[in-house]
Specification:
Layout (H helix, E strand, L loop, with lengths): L8 E4 L2 H12 L2 E6 L3 E6 L2 E7 L5 H5 L4 E5 L3 H10 L3 E8 L4 E7 L5 E7 L15
Parallel strand pairs: 1-4, 5-8
Antiparallel strand pairs: 2-3, 3-4, 6-7, 7-8
């Protein structure tokens, strides 16, 4: 198992196509694969499992509310690569008051991905949050 603590599992109607797309578009690398129904992909020290979705209905894709956040070193360069590979852009890179620069896209199965770069180290109180004590 990879060193990360949480490993999300995402369903796709075509696992092989999803693996190729996630690797080419987002920069994941394939760690292992079982047949055409399951694989583990790595991104830096993080991981996801790609698995076969049991239903292939349009309703399953339309109602998909899965959202992933991935930390990247250079969000603008990553964004340009993803845009050039034709990902469905939800929002372009934007600086947020909590010290992150982020953009959001949808993948080929409708999962939402936000890629984030820390641009400033701020306490939650600096941007309206609260530290839990």
């Amino acid at each position: 198992m990879p060193p990360c603590t949480i490993i999300p599992v995402l369903g796709y109607s075509n696992v092989s196509e999803a693996i190729d797309w996630l690797c080419e578009t987002f920069g994941f690398t394939e760690r292992w694969r079982v047949g055409n129904h399951r694989a583990q992909l790595m991104f830096d020290s993080g991981a996801i499992v790609v698995t076969e979705r049991k239903t292939k209905s349009a309703e399953a894709t339309e109602n998909n509310n899965t959202s992933m956040m991935v930390r990247v070193r250079y969000v603008d360069g990553h964004y340009e690569h993803v845009r050039q590979h034709g990902a469905s852009i939800v929002s372009a890179p934007t600086d947020y008051p909590y010290g992150e620069r982020q953009y959001t896209v949808k993948d080929l199965a409708g999962h939402t991905w936000t890629f984030s770069q820390s641009v400033q180290d701020l306490a939650p109180e600096d941007w309206g949050g609260r530290t839990k004590t």
